[in-house]
Amino acid sequence: MPRILNSFFLFISFFSFAQKDTLSVIKHTSEWIVNQDCRVVYRGLSNKFSIEVPNSLSFSVSGLGLKSTSKNTFEINPGAGTELNVSVQIVLKNKTKKVEVFVYKIKNIPLQLTSLNFNKDPILRMSKNNLKDAVVRVFFEDKNLDFKFIVLEFTIRIPGQKAIVVQGNTITKAAFEQINRYARKGDDLLITDLKVRLGISLNGFFCKFTPVLITIL
């Protein structure tokens, strides 16, 4: 199950003469947003928001790619462009009408990277002993995204040897024995062909992860 992470609140008020208790509140509720101050929506993801306007008679919301999913809850699937405006049309209790506009930057889903033992460099130099029980992880280079990838399988390729398929996210004892036996100083080992489970939908977006190249010292 995806973990619901920290959301962000964005407050914008127009018209200095308007009532101070009618500020709109937009709460980003997507599981993958970690930066509370992030004003970003992503192409290829369902960007979920809850919108409240305290002390109003009514309000409506509009925006390109925006649709209502339930009461006060909305989903945005941005298309082309670099910015997206969410407009909140408000009727105050004194019957005054007001409009607030929230501006978000549109970004593409970034590259998915592979790390070994939290080392995010895709090209490593290490001894064979450092590969014992080493853990393979996957992450996005964009710090606003915090998907919980689960590595189910990966492949280790040693020059001149049959590929080693490893179940799970850790170099097993059997795999390490193969590395220890066949890998030589100066050999380049490759960790590739990851199979990963992701807890939320990417709207058909296909994840392709970078390999890790390890030069044996």
TrEMBL record:
Annotated ranges, domain Gliding motility-associated protein GldM second immunoglobulin-like: 39-107
Keywords, sorted A to Z: Signal
Pfam families: GldM_3rd (PF21602), GldM_4th (PF12080)
Signal peptide span: 1-18
Keyword Cell inner membrane: no
The Gliding motility-associated protein GldM C-terminal domain, residue ranges: 125-197
Official protein name in the record: GldM C-terminal domain-containing protein
Upper taxonomic lineage: Bacteria, Pseudomonadati, Bacteroidota, Flavobacteriia, Flavobacteriales
